[in-house]
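New to this. Please check this record:
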Amino acid sequence: MSSAPKEAGRPIRCMVAKVGLDGHDRGAHVISRAFRDAGFEVIYTGLHNTPSDIVRVAIQEDVDVLGISILSGAHMTLVPEVLEGLAERGAAEDTLVLVGGVIPSKDAAALKEQGVAEVFGPGTTLAETIAFVREHAPVQ
């Protein structure tokens, strides 16, 4: 079940999600505001979402970009569950998945092999993240 074709010229629709029991959401708030200020449409899901919650909302909201913020260390369990859920629902190809947090480089590489477009760690500027989204989002 693939989503309808995206309209060219509309704002990029981004969802920022916190997955699992991670309660540190300052970064998610910062990136949500930066995305909004860059002209993106932003949906922030709040804290303590399950992977299936994130998949359900991403599909309901027909997002172009899904940014997952995770600092709990459970990224190698929870992010693949989100990717699998998107694939099962036919939305994996239509959704640019990004991960932000303190992710070891070997784990970042493994997440990219599984379908994450990019992993943004400490020191990444907002401008770098926004530029990546503008360049890679599946709608322009």
User: Anything to note?
Assistant: The first strand starts at residue 13 and ends at 18. Strands lie at 13-18, 41-44, 65-69, 96-100, 118-120. Helices lie at 26-37, 51-60, 75-88, 105-114, 126-136.
